Amino acid sequence: QVQLVESGGGLVQPGGSLRLSCAASGNIFRINNMGWYRQAPGKQRELVATIITGGSTNYADSVKGRFSISGDNAKNTVYLQMNSLKPEDTAVYYCNADIRNLLGNRVYWGRGTQVTVSS
User: Fold this and answer.
1) pLDDT at 68
2) Region 63-80: what's the mean pLDDT?
3) Tens of pLDDT along 83-103?
4) Cα–Cα distance between 60 and 105 in angstroms, integer?
5) Computed from CA positions of residues 4, 25, 59, 7, in that sequence, does the dihedral angle turn out positive or negative?
6) How far is 119 from 114, CA to CA, in rounded Å?
7) What is d(CA 1, CA 17) in angstroms, rounded to the nearest whole number?
8) Which of 51, 63, 72, 108 has a 20 to 30 Å separation from 24 between CA atoms?
9) Farthest CA pair distance, the chain
Protein backbone atom coordinates (compact mmCIF):
# COMPACT_ATOMS: atom_id res chain seq x y z
CA GLN A 1 0.00 0.00 0.00
CA VAL A 2 1.05 3.60 -0.60
CA GLN A 3 0.27 6.61 1.57
CA LEU A 4 0.50 10.27 0.59
CA VAL A 5 0.47 12.65 3.53
CA GLU A 6 0.06 16.37 2.92
CA SER A 7 0.90 19.17 5.31
CA GLY A 8 1.32 22.94 5.33
CA GLY A 9 -2.16 24.23 4.61
CA GLY A 10 -3.82 26.97 6.60
CA LEU A 11 -5.22 30.48 6.63
CA VAL A 12 -3.21 33.28 5.03
CA GLN A 13 -3.90 36.85 4.02
CA PRO A 14 -3.94 37.90 0.37
CA GLY A 15 -0.39 38.43 -0.84
CA GLY A 16 0.98 35.96 1.67
CA SER A 17 2.81 32.67 1.21
CA LEU A 18 2.42 29.04 2.18
CA ARG A 19 4.47 25.93 1.53
CA LEU A 20 2.75 22.59 1.10
CA SER A 21 4.54 19.27 1.52
CA CYS A 22 3.53 15.78 0.47
CA ALA A 23 5.44 12.70 1.54
CA ALA A 24 4.92 9.32 -0.12
CA SER A 25 5.58 6.11 1.78
CA GLY A 26 4.90 2.40 1.51
CA ASN A 27 5.34 0.00 -1.38
CA ILE A 28 7.26 2.16 -3.85
CA PHE A 29 9.67 1.02 -6.56
CA ARG A 30 9.71 4.29 -8.47
CA ILE A 31 7.84 7.56 -8.45
CA ASN A 32 7.12 8.53 -12.05
CA ASN A 33 5.68 11.93 -11.25
CA MET A 34 4.03 13.86 -8.44
CA GLY A 35 1.80 16.86 -8.45
CA TRP A 36 -0.76 19.06 -6.80
CA TYR A 37 -4.41 19.52 -7.67
CA ARG A 38 -7.00 21.69 -5.99
CA GLN A 39 -10.75 21.78 -5.63
CA ALA A 40 -12.69 24.85 -4.62
CA PRO A 41 -16.29 24.61 -3.34
CA GLY A 42 -18.68 23.98 -6.21
CA LYS A 43 -15.89 23.51 -8.74
CA GLN A 44 -14.14 20.57 -10.34
CA ARG A 45 -10.72 19.43 -9.23
CA GLU A 46 -8.05 21.11 -11.32
CA LEU A 47 -4.36 20.70 -11.95
CA VAL A 48 -2.07 23.13 -10.14
CA ALA A 49 1.43 21.82 -10.87
CA THR A 50 3.29 18.61 -11.62
CA ILE A 51 6.89 17.48 -11.56
CA ILE A 52 8.31 14.38 -13.22
CA THR A 53 11.43 12.38 -12.42
CA GLY A 54 14.24 14.43 -13.92
CA GLY A 55 12.76 17.70 -12.78
CA SER A 56 10.50 18.87 -15.61
CA THR A 57 7.58 20.89 -14.30
CA ASN A 58 4.17 21.98 -15.53
CA TYR A 59 1.90 24.67 -14.11
CA ALA A 60 -1.65 25.85 -14.54
CA ASP A 61 -1.73 29.28 -16.18
CA SER A 62 -3.45 30.72 -13.12
CA VAL A 63 -0.45 30.01 -10.87
CA LYS A 64 2.50 30.55 -13.21
CA GLY A 65 4.99 32.98 -11.73
CA ARG A 66 3.49 32.63 -8.24
CA PHE A 67 3.76 28.93 -7.38
CA SER A 68 6.80 26.69 -7.57
CA ILE A 69 6.86 22.89 -7.36
CA SER A 70 9.95 20.96 -6.32
CA GLY A 71 10.84 17.47 -5.21
CA ASP A 72 13.22 15.60 -2.94
CA ASN A 73 13.78 12.16 -4.45
CA ALA A 74 15.60 10.85 -1.40
CA LYS A 75 12.58 11.66 0.78
CA ASN A 76 9.87 10.80 -1.79
CA THR A 77 8.50 14.25 -1.07
CA VAL A 78 7.09 17.01 -3.24
CA TYR A 79 6.68 20.63 -2.22
CA LEU A 80 4.52 23.46 -3.47
CA GLN A 81 5.72 26.96 -2.63
CA MET A 82 2.82 29.36 -3.03
CA ASN A 83 3.54 33.08 -3.12
CA SER A 84 1.37 36.14 -3.80
CA LEU A 85 -1.69 34.16 -2.79
CA LYS A 86 -5.10 35.37 -3.91
CA PRO A 87 -8.57 34.66 -2.52
CA GLU A 88 -9.27 32.61 -5.65
CA ASP A 89 -6.49 30.22 -4.59
CA THR A 90 -8.72 29.10 -1.71
CA ALA A 91 -9.34 25.37 -2.10
CA VAL A 92 -8.52 21.94 -0.79
CA TYR A 93 -5.14 20.99 -2.23
CA TYR A 94 -4.54 17.33 -3.05
CA CYS A 95 -1.26 15.59 -3.61
CA ASN A 96 -1.12 13.14 -6.50
CA ALA A 97 1.54 10.58 -7.39
CA ASP A 98 2.03 8.14 -10.25
CA ILE A 99 3.95 5.30 -8.61
CA ARG A 100 5.34 1.99 -9.83
CA ASN A 101 5.25 -0.89 -7.33
CA LEU A 102 4.41 -4.60 -7.23
CA LEU A 103 0.95 -3.76 -8.55
CA GLY A 104 2.34 -1.94 -11.57
CA ASN A 105 1.88 1.76 -12.29
CA ARG A 106 -0.90 3.32 -10.24
CA VAL A 107 -2.09 6.80 -9.33
CA TYR A 108 -2.50 7.63 -5.66
CA TRP A 109 -4.12 10.62 -3.93
CA GLY A 110 -3.64 12.24 -0.57
CA ARG A 111 -6.56 13.27 1.63
CA GLY A 112 -6.07 16.95 0.97
CA THR A 113 -5.11 20.03 2.94
CA GLN A 114 -7.20 23.19 3.17
CA VAL A 115 -5.75 26.49 1.97
CA THR A 116 -7.78 29.59 2.75
CA VAL A 117 -6.75 33.02 1.50
CA SER A 118 -8.72 35.72 3.25
CA SER A 119 -8.28 39.01 5.05
Assistant:
1) 98
2) 96
3) 999 999 999 999 999 999 988
4) 24
5) positive
6) 16
7) 33
8) 63
9) 47
